[in-house]
Write a structure and sequence with these properties.
Order of helices and strands: HHHHHHHEHEEHEEHEE
Number of helices: 10
Number of strands: 7
Radius of gyration: 33 Å
Helix content: 55-70%
Distance between the termini: 39 Å
Strand order of the largest sheet: 2-4-5-7-6
Structural class: alpha+beta
Largest sheet: 5 strands, mixed
């Protein structure tokens, strides 16, 4: 694609001016060709210096005070080099005008073409980098969503079985049936709703509430659980499975029946501002050797950067006694 674009960009403007120049002054045609090749080489160098070096290091890193002077310096260096080569070449515009005065009408066209090509090379390198960054962002967003879904329980082999268990338990143990029903809702949410880019905030909070209710089954008196969420949830939308990793982490690393454990989960909504706070004290837990601690949180951090790049604030405090997560998202 790069080769095709450069052929069209450099050859197409050159051909008509060269034909006219050759007709007016055949003796200078070879020198003119060499100068055009030199200009093309300098355009290529300017494009790829900006595309491969200046933009990734400075512009995309928002170091504008370095990028623009460096870009002007690159253009100035290329222009100085071209002027020097033109001075050292055998091309003499004054002599060519004496041979055929009509050449005077072509030289401004050549200069305008050269300046436009130079400007086009800079603009195209910027647009091409932006296009690649957008394509990369979409690819990373899709990969993060797939990784998030893979990290959740696969519901397909459980869903029908849960319905059968619920039908049996509803007569013998209503409490157990209620728990199975909550688990079925979680499986249904994981299987259907998470295929979308955004879901209702109320559905996401209900999923977390069901998860907490099921976790209560394994908690004893040594664990103090405080869960507070708003009674009224406005019709906002949020990326699916974005909050659950922080809640899962609290139950995974903050519960030990032999130690006093405390977990506090709080949600607040102020207009379009959503806030989540999760605090758990650290206890000794037996961790699976195949488990990578913090993977879910790191994946969620990556998703937040992709989906809400300038509309969220995530702070995590990890000290000797507590693990504290504070998340603010603007869901507008």
């Amino acid at each position: 694609m790069h080769a095709l674009i450069w052929v069209l960009l450099l050859v197409v403007p050159y051909v008509p001016t060269d034909q006219v120049f050759n007709a007016l002054d055949p003796s200078s045609d070879r020198v003119y060709l060499l100068l055009c090749l030199t200009l093309s080489a300098l355009l290529l160098v300017t494009f790829y210096v900006n595309y491969l070096v200046l933009m990734p290091r400075y512009l995309l890193a928002k170091r504008y005070w370095i990028y623009f002077p460096a870009l002007l310096l690159t253009i100035g260096a290329a222009g100085f080099l071209f002027a020097l080569i033109l001075q050292l070449s055998d091309f003499n515009s004054i002599l060519a005008l004496r041979v055929n005065p009509a050449i005077e009408k072509i030289i401004p066209v050549i200069i305008v073409n050269a300046l436009l090509l130079w400007l086009l090379s800079i603009v195209s390198s910027i647009l091409w980098t932006i296009y690649n960054r957008l394509r990369q962002t979409e690819s990373e967003k899709l990969s993060a969503q797939i990784a998030s879904l893979k990290s959740q329980i696969n519901p397909h082999f459980l869903f029908n079985t849960l319905n059968n268990i619920y039908a049996i338990a509803i007569d013998t143990s209503p409490k157990a049936a209620d728990m199975v029903d909550k688990l079925s809702e979680m499986m249904r949410y994981t299987m259907k709703e998470t295929q979308q880019d955004f879901v209702a905030l109320e559905d996401e909070i209900n999923y977390i509430s069901n998860y907490i209710e099921l976790q209560k089954l394994r908690l004893d008196r040594s664990v103090r659980l405080d869960y507070d969420y708003p009674g009224y949830i406005p019709s906002l939308r949020i990326a699916p499975m974005l909050l659950i990793p922080f809640v899962e982490n609290a139950f995974k690393h903050g519960v030990n029946s032999e130690q006093k454990s405390r977990i506090r989960i709080e949600m607040q909504i102020n207009n379009t501002e959503f806030q989540l706070s999760v605090v758990n004290n650290k206890v000794n837990v037996q961790r699976d050797i195949s488990e990578r601690s913090g993977l879910g949180i790191e994946n969620t951090r990556h998703r937040l950067n992709l989906i809400y790049p300038s509309r969220h604030l995530l702070t995590i405090h990890d000290n000797e006694k507590e693990f504290i997560v504070s998340l603010h998202i603007n869901l507008q």
